[in-house]
Design a protein that fits this description.
It is an enzyme of class 4 (lyase). By secondary structure, the chain is of the alpha+beta class. It is about 25% helix and about 20% strand. Helix 3 packs across helix 5. The relative contact order is 0.15. Bound molecules: 5-S-methyl-1-O-phosphono-5-thio-D-ribulose (MRU) and zinc ion (ZN).
């Protein structure tokens, strides 16, 4: 299937991205990227966000200033056919598209965030070998007994409903160990797909995948969960790096 062929003329395609609702995916992606830019997550055109809205996948264009995007810049893909139903003529879809699709397919995610946060990059340089499983995903970021771990769900899309006693169902507890696999970077973003999918399969409880010397992919059942988990992870990555600098062990 040729996903890059120009779409057939569809007068209704713009209706997919035009809305006065700030939470409409086309508006929401533009807004999130502006916020993430201030955190250094999507600097210099790197990183990005995708949202699944029913059977429609919203994707940002490739190689653009992510904080300057407009709703009309968005690509829309039909999730079932994997064909673009809206394709801005002068732009290409994000090279992260196969990675975002992996989160939708393997975790039933509703949103996936890719950051180039320096804390994520630094922590990939400090992660130790996973000696228990030397055959596949070789490296793992693990941390426990830090309160912010409770902001992360099992598998990334676990329920965050509050159970009796105030416990968040599906979320990790203070004494649980958070484990995030680290995969090696590739020359081209789209070539990360196979190793990212392998890491997701090998670590079904992981809510994210780190990419060495590159950044992190984080997902959630919806935008709120993906965003808050990306925030919790960035907090933990930074904490781990700072602890390392102070000579403290984080595991
Ligand atoms: C600074 S270029 C970064 C890209 O190669 C890539 O890593 C990335 O995250 C964004 O890809 P894009 O195709 O612009 O959405
Ligand atoms: Zn990237």
């Amino acid at each position: 299937m040729d996903n890059t062929a120009p779409p057939e003329k569809d007068e209704n395609a713009d209706a997919l991205v035009l809305s006065t609702d700030p939470l409409h995916p086309a508006n929401h992606i533009s807004d999130l990227c502006r916020r993430f830019y201030t955190l250094g997550w999507v600097t210099g055109t790197g990183g990005g966000v995708s949202i699944r809205h029913g059977d429609h996948i919203y994707l940002a264009p490739s190689g653009v200033q992510k904080e300057m995007m407009q709703p009309t810049d968005m690509f829309v893909m039909d999730y079932r056919t994997k064909k673009y139903i809206r394709q801005p003529a002068v732009l290409k879809p994000s090279a992260c598209t196969p990675l975002f699709l992996a989160a939708y397919t393997h975790r039933n995610a509703g949103c996936c965030i890719h950051t180039h946060s320096q804390w994520a990059v630094l922590v990939t340089l400090l992660c130790e070998s996973n000696l228990q499983s030397p055959t596949s995903t070789r490296h793992l970021f693990s941390i426990k007994e830090i309160e912010q771990i409770k902001g992360l769900s099992r598998g990334g899309t676990g329920s965050s409903e509050i159970a009796e006693g105030g416990r968040k169902l599906g979320n990790l507890g203070f004494f649980d160990t958070l484990r995030i696999p680290v995969i090696e970077n590739t020359a081209h973003e789209e070539d990360l797909k196979d190793s990212l999918e392998a890491a997701m399969r090998e670590w079904p409880e992981a809510c994210a995948v780190l990419v060495r010397r590159h950044g992190v992919y984080v997902w959630g059942k919806d935008v709120v969960q993906a965003k808050t988990q990306a925030e919790s992870l960035d907090y933990l990555f930074r904490l781990a790096v700072e602890m390392h600098g102070l000579g403290l062990k984080w595991v």
